[in-house]
Protein backbone atom coordinates (compact mmCIF):
# COMPACT_ATOMS: atom_id res chain seq x y z
CA UNK A 1 0.00 0.00 0.00
CA UNK A 2 1.36 3.43 -0.95
CA UNK A 3 2.25 5.68 1.96
CA UNK A 4 0.08 8.77 2.34
CA UNK A 5 1.98 11.99 1.63
CA UNK A 6 2.19 14.38 4.58
CA UNK A 7 1.54 17.97 3.52
CA UNK A 8 2.74 21.31 4.85
CA UNK A 9 -0.49 23.29 5.11
CA UNK A 10 1.18 26.18 6.93
CA UNK A 11 2.77 27.28 3.64
CA UNK A 12 -0.11 29.34 2.23
CA UNK A 13 1.41 30.01 -1.19
CA UNK A 14 -0.96 28.18 -3.54
CA UNK A 15 -4.28 29.55 -4.79
CA UNK A 16 -7.67 29.06 -3.21
CA UNK A 17 -9.82 27.73 -6.05
CA UNK A 18 -13.53 28.40 -5.60
CA UNK A 19 -16.43 27.24 -7.75
CA UNK A 20 -19.10 29.81 -8.58
CA UNK A 21 -22.25 29.50 -10.66
CA UNK A 22 -24.48 32.33 -9.46
CA UNK A 23 -26.28 30.38 -6.74
CA UNK A 24 -26.57 31.59 -3.15
CA UNK A 25 -24.42 28.68 -2.02
CA UNK A 26 -21.61 29.48 -4.45
CA UNK A 27 -21.60 33.14 -3.37
CA UNK A 28 -21.19 31.97 0.24
CA UNK A 29 -18.21 29.87 -0.86
CA UNK A 30 -16.71 32.82 -2.74
CA UNK A 31 -17.07 35.15 0.23
CA UNK A 32 -15.45 32.58 2.52
CA UNK A 33 -12.49 32.23 0.13
CA UNK A 34 -12.14 36.01 -0.19
CA UNK A 35 -12.19 36.39 3.59
CA UNK A 36 -9.35 33.90 3.98
CA UNK A 37 -7.34 35.49 1.16
CA UNK A 38 -7.76 38.87 2.82
CA UNK A 39 -6.03 37.46 5.92
CA UNK A 40 -3.36 35.31 4.25
CA UNK A 41 -2.58 37.25 1.08
CA UNK A 42 -3.39 34.23 -1.09
CA UNK A 43 -4.85 34.46 -4.58
CA UNK A 44 -8.47 33.42 -5.15
CA UNK A 45 -9.16 31.75 -8.48
CA UNK A 46 -12.92 31.97 -9.13
CA UNK A 47 -13.86 29.17 -11.52
CA UNK A 48 -17.04 29.04 -13.58
CA UNK A 49 -17.42 25.77 -15.44
CA UNK A 50 -20.32 26.25 -17.81
CA UNK A 51 -22.12 24.22 -20.45
CA UNK A 52 -24.67 25.15 -23.11
CA UNK A 53 -28.31 25.25 -22.02
CA UNK A 54 -31.53 26.24 -23.77
CA UNK A 55 -31.81 29.59 -21.95
CA UNK A 56 -28.60 30.77 -23.65
CA UNK A 57 -30.44 31.11 -26.94
CA UNK A 58 -29.86 29.18 -30.18
CA UNK A 59 -27.22 26.47 -29.97
CA UNK A 60 -23.91 27.77 -31.39
CA UNK A 61 -23.20 26.64 -34.93
CA UNK A 62 -19.92 28.40 -35.64
CA UNK A 63 -16.71 29.27 -33.83
CA UNK A 64 -17.91 32.87 -33.70
CA UNK A 65 -21.08 31.74 -31.91
CA UNK A 66 -18.97 29.74 -29.44
CA UNK A 67 -16.76 32.75 -28.80
CA UNK A 68 -19.80 34.88 -28.03
CA UNK A 69 -20.90 32.34 -25.42
CA UNK A 70 -17.39 32.23 -23.91
CA UNK A 71 -17.34 36.03 -23.70
CA UNK A 72 -20.79 36.04 -22.14
CA UNK A 73 -19.69 33.49 -19.52
CA UNK A 74 -16.53 35.46 -18.73
CA UNK A 75 -18.51 38.67 -18.32
CA UNK A 76 -21.02 36.91 -16.09
CA UNK A 77 -18.21 35.59 -13.89
CA UNK A 78 -16.67 39.05 -13.63
CA UNK A 79 -20.06 40.47 -12.60
CA UNK A 80 -20.52 37.82 -9.90
CA UNK A 81 -17.06 38.36 -8.44
CA UNK A 82 -17.33 42.16 -8.54
CA UNK A 83 -20.59 41.98 -6.60
CA UNK A 84 -18.92 39.86 -3.90
CA UNK A 85 -15.81 42.06 -3.60
CA UNK A 86 -17.59 45.12 -2.18
CA UNK A 87 -16.78 44.35 1.46
CA UNK A 88 -13.25 43.02 0.97
CA UNK A 89 -9.86 44.70 0.71
CA UNK A 90 -7.88 42.62 -1.77
CA UNK A 91 -5.32 43.66 -4.38
CA UNK A 92 -6.24 43.15 -8.04
CA UNK A 93 -3.51 40.53 -8.38
CA UNK A 94 -5.19 38.43 -5.65
CA UNK A 95 -8.18 37.77 -7.91
CA UNK A 96 -8.06 35.41 -10.87
CA UNK A 97 -11.07 34.55 -13.04
CA UNK A 98 -11.36 31.32 -14.99
CA UNK A 99 -14.37 30.37 -17.09
CA UNK A 100 -14.52 27.65 -19.69
CA UNK A 101 -16.95 25.21 -21.19
CA UNK A 102 -16.93 22.19 -18.92
CA UNK A 103 -18.92 20.65 -16.09
CA UNK A 104 -18.36 22.30 -12.74
CA UNK A 105 -16.60 19.33 -11.16
CA UNK A 106 -14.31 18.75 -14.15
CA UNK A 107 -13.30 22.41 -14.22
CA UNK A 108 -12.56 22.50 -10.50
CA UNK A 109 -10.64 19.22 -10.48
CA UNK A 110 -8.49 20.33 -13.42
CA UNK A 111 -7.75 23.86 -12.24
CA UNK A 112 -7.62 22.95 -8.56
CA UNK A 113 -5.16 20.05 -8.76
CA UNK A 114 -2.32 22.23 -7.43
CA UNK A 115 -4.45 24.54 -5.26
CA UNK A 116 -4.12 25.01 -1.51
CA UNK A 117 -7.78 23.98 -1.37
CA UNK A 118 -10.95 23.87 -3.47
CA UNK A 119 -13.98 25.67 -2.01
CA UNK A 120 -17.62 25.09 -2.99
CA UNK A 121 -21.04 25.76 -1.50
CA UNK A 122 -23.25 22.93 -0.29
CA UNK A 123 -26.31 22.63 -2.47
CA UNK A 124 -29.75 23.04 -0.93
CA UNK A 125 -30.98 19.46 -1.18
CA UNK A 126 -32.29 17.13 1.49
CA UNK A 127 -30.11 14.27 2.74
CA UNK A 128 -32.01 11.60 0.81
CA UNK A 129 -31.60 13.40 -2.52
CA UNK A 130 -27.93 14.08 -1.79
CA UNK A 131 -27.50 10.33 -1.22
CA UNK A 132 -29.36 9.25 -4.37
CA UNK A 133 -28.15 11.92 -6.81
CA UNK A 134 -24.78 12.66 -5.33
CA UNK A 135 -23.48 16.21 -5.29
CA UNK A 136 -20.70 18.41 -6.63
CA UNK A 137 -19.11 18.58 -3.18
CA UNK A 138 -19.18 14.80 -2.74
CA UNK A 139 -17.75 14.24 -6.22
CA UNK A 140 -14.92 16.66 -5.49
CA UNK A 141 -14.26 15.18 -2.04
CA UNK A 142 -13.87 11.72 -3.59
CA UNK A 143 -11.71 12.73 -6.56
CA UNK A 144 -9.69 15.83 -5.64
CA UNK A 145 -6.05 15.52 -4.63
CA UNK A 146 -6.23 18.65 -2.46
CA UNK A 147 -8.45 19.59 0.50
CA UNK A 148 -12.07 20.34 -0.41
CA UNK A 149 -13.93 22.87 1.74
CA UNK A 150 -17.72 22.87 1.61
CA UNK A 151 -19.44 26.02 2.85
CA UNK A 152 -22.84 25.65 4.44
CA UNK A 153 -25.42 28.43 4.13
CA UNK A 154 -27.76 29.41 6.94
CA UNK A 155 -30.86 27.90 5.31
CA UNK A 156 -31.60 24.32 6.32
CA UNK A 157 -33.64 22.16 3.99
CA UNK A 158 -33.91 19.33 6.54
CA UNK A 159 -35.78 21.23 9.27
CA UNK A 160 -39.04 21.42 7.30
CA UNK A 161 -38.99 17.67 6.73
CA UNK A 162 -38.24 17.02 10.40
CA UNK A 163 -41.20 19.23 11.36
CA UNK A 164 -43.40 17.15 9.05
CA UNK A 165 -42.16 13.92 10.64
CA UNK A 166 -42.82 15.24 14.16
CA UNK A 167 -46.38 16.22 13.25
CA UNK A 168 -47.11 13.03 11.30
CA UNK A 169 -46.17 10.87 14.29
CA UNK A 170 -47.97 12.95 16.93
CA UNK A 171 -51.60 11.83 17.44
CA UNK A 172 -53.24 15.20 18.12
CA UNK A 173 -53.94 18.46 16.33
CA UNK A 174 -51.15 20.43 17.98
CA UNK A 175 -48.39 21.71 15.66
CA UNK A 176 -44.89 20.65 16.68
CA UNK A 177 -41.56 22.17 15.67
CA UNK A 178 -38.29 20.30 15.63
CA UNK A 179 -35.86 22.04 17.99
CA UNK A 180 -32.27 21.40 17.03
CA UNK A 181 -29.67 21.70 19.80
CA UNK A 182 -27.17 24.46 19.12
CA UNK A 183 -24.73 26.84 20.77
CA UNK A 184 -25.55 30.42 21.84
CA UNK A 185 -22.01 31.42 20.82
CA UNK A 186 -21.77 33.13 17.38
CA UNK A 187 -20.47 30.75 14.72
CA UNK A 188 -17.31 32.80 14.07
CA UNK A 189 -16.36 32.60 17.77
CA UNK A 190 -16.58 28.81 17.95
CA UNK A 191 -13.63 26.38 17.71
CA UNK A 192 -12.20 24.49 14.76
CA UNK A 193 -12.76 20.74 15.27
CA UNK A 194 -10.66 18.06 13.58
CA UNK A 195 -11.51 14.38 13.66
CA UNK A 196 -8.50 12.07 14.03
CA UNK A 197 -7.91 8.32 14.21
CA UNK A 198 -4.11 8.01 14.15
CA UNK A 199 -3.81 7.47 10.38
CA UNK A 200 -1.76 9.59 7.96
CA UNK A 201 -5.06 10.80 6.49
CA UNK A 202 -6.07 12.21 9.84
CA UNK A 203 -2.58 13.64 10.39
CA UNK A 204 -3.01 15.66 7.21
CA UNK A 205 -6.42 16.74 8.50
CA UNK A 206 -4.80 17.79 11.79
CA UNK A 207 -2.15 19.88 10.00
CA UNK A 208 -4.78 21.57 7.82
CA UNK A 209 -7.00 22.27 10.83
CA UNK A 210 -4.08 23.77 12.77
CA UNK A 211 -3.37 26.09 9.85
CA UNK A 212 -7.05 27.08 9.68
CA UNK A 213 -7.19 27.71 13.44
CA UNK A 214 -4.08 29.87 13.20
CA UNK A 215 -5.50 31.91 10.31
CA UNK A 216 -8.74 32.64 12.17
CA UNK A 217 -7.22 32.82 15.67
CA UNK A 218 -9.60 30.08 16.81
CA UNK A 219 -9.14 27.28 19.36
CA UNK A 220 -8.42 23.87 17.85
CA UNK A 221 -10.20 20.83 19.29
CA UNK A 222 -8.60 17.54 18.28
CA UNK A 223 -11.42 15.02 18.55
CA UNK A 224 -11.06 11.23 18.66
CA UNK A 225 -14.31 9.28 18.58
CA UNK A 226 -13.49 5.73 19.51
CA UNK A 227 -14.99 2.28 19.86
CA UNK A 228 -13.30 -0.51 21.83
CA UNK A 229 -12.23 -2.23 18.62
CA UNK A 230 -10.35 0.93 17.56
CA UNK A 231 -8.04 0.91 20.58
CA UNK A 232 -6.23 -2.34 19.89
CA UNK A 233 -4.54 -4.19 22.74
CA UNK A 234 -4.30 -2.38 26.08
CA UNK A 235 -1.62 -3.60 28.48
CA UNK A 236 -3.13 -5.67 31.25
CA UNK A 237 -6.37 -6.23 29.35
CA UNK A 238 -5.15 -8.36 26.43
CA UNK A 239 -7.90 -10.94 26.99
CA UNK A 240 -10.53 -8.76 28.66
CA UNK A 241 -12.55 -5.64 28.00
CA UNK A 242 -10.93 -2.73 29.88
CA UNK A 243 -13.02 -0.48 32.15
CA UNK A 244 -14.29 2.71 30.52
CA UNK A 245 -11.90 4.86 32.59
CA UNK A 246 -8.88 2.84 31.42
CA UNK A 247 -10.02 2.86 27.79
CA UNK A 248 -10.68 6.60 27.90
CA UNK A 249 -7.22 7.30 29.33
CA UNK A 250 -5.65 5.08 26.66
CA UNK A 251 -7.52 6.97 23.92
CA UNK A 252 -6.43 10.34 25.34
CA UNK A 253 -2.78 9.26 25.43
CA UNK A 254 -3.05 8.03 21.85
CA UNK A 255 -4.30 11.42 20.64
CA UNK A 256 -1.80 13.33 22.78
CA UNK A 257 1.05 11.36 21.17
CA UNK A 258 -0.35 12.08 17.71
CA UNK A 259 -0.51 15.81 18.43
CA UNK A 260 3.07 15.80 19.71
CA UNK A 261 4.31 14.01 16.58
CA UNK A 262 2.55 16.55 14.37
CA UNK A 263 4.61 19.41 15.90
CA UNK A 264 1.84 21.98 15.59
CA UNK A 265 2.66 25.71 15.83
CA UNK A 266 3.06 26.80 19.45
CA UNK A 267 0.60 29.67 19.04
CA UNK A 268 -2.31 27.32 18.27
CA UNK A 269 -4.57 26.75 21.29
CA UNK A 270 -4.97 22.95 21.17
CA UNK A 271 -7.55 20.95 23.16
CA UNK A 272 -7.83 17.16 23.13
CA UNK A 273 -11.29 15.57 23.25
CA UNK A 274 -12.00 11.83 23.24
CA UNK A 275 -15.48 10.30 23.23
CA UNK A 276 -16.80 6.75 23.22
CA UNK A 277 -19.05 7.15 20.17
CA UNK A 278 -18.92 6.33 16.46
CA UNK A 279 -16.86 8.87 14.51
CA UNK A 280 -19.61 9.93 12.12
CA UNK A 281 -22.19 10.47 14.84
CA UNK A 282 -19.71 12.24 17.12
CA UNK A 283 -18.42 14.66 14.49
CA UNK A 284 -21.92 15.54 13.25
CA UNK A 285 -22.88 16.28 16.85
CA UNK A 286 -19.74 18.42 17.26
CA UNK A 287 -20.65 20.39 14.13
CA UNK A 288 -23.57 22.01 16.00
CA UNK A 289 -21.08 23.73 18.29
CA UNK A 290 -18.11 24.22 15.94
CA UNK A 291 -17.07 26.89 13.49
CA UNK A 292 -15.56 24.37 11.08
CA UNK A 293 -15.09 20.58 10.96
CA UNK A 294 -12.00 19.05 9.32
CA UNK A 295 -11.80 15.32 8.61
CA UNK A 296 -9.54 13.02 6.59
CA UNK A 297 -10.79 11.22 3.51
CA UNK A 298 -9.98 7.78 4.86
CA UNK A 299 -12.90 5.45 4.40
CA UNK A 300 -14.73 3.46 1.77
CA UNK A 301 -14.62 4.17 -1.94
CA UNK A 302 -16.73 3.39 -4.98
CA UNK A 303 -19.98 1.48 -4.48
CA UNK A 304 -19.16 0.64 -0.87
CA UNK A 305 -18.88 4.33 -0.02
CA UNK A 306 -22.10 5.13 -1.90
CA UNK A 307 -24.24 2.49 -0.23
CA UNK A 308 -22.54 1.91 3.12
CA UNK A 309 -21.11 5.36 3.70
CA UNK A 310 -17.90 6.58 5.31
CA UNK A 311 -17.08 9.03 8.08
CA UNK A 312 -16.22 11.82 5.63
CA UNK A 313 -19.44 11.22 3.68
CA UNK A 314 -21.52 11.24 6.86
CA UNK A 315 -19.96 14.51 7.95
CA UNK A 316 -20.28 16.09 4.52
CA UNK A 317 -23.96 15.16 4.27
CA UNK A 318 -25.05 15.98 7.81
CA UNK A 319 -22.70 18.52 9.40
CA UNK A 320 -24.26 21.79 10.50
CA UNK A 321 -21.16 23.92 9.86
CA UNK A 322 -18.49 24.31 7.19
CA UNK A 323 -16.53 21.13 6.42
CA UNK A 324 -13.12 20.40 4.90
CA UNK A 325 -12.24 16.93 3.61
CA UNK A 326 -8.46 16.42 3.54
CA UNK A 327 -6.60 13.73 1.58
UniProtKB/TrEMBL annotation:
InterPro entries, sorted: Rossmann-like_a/b/a_fold, Universal_stress_UspA, UspA
Signal peptide (UniProt feature, chain positions): none
UspA domain residues: 16-152, 190-327
Top-level taxon: Bacteria
Family: Belongs to the universal stress protein A family.
Protein name: Universal stress protein UspA
Organism from which the protein derives: Bifidobacterium magnum
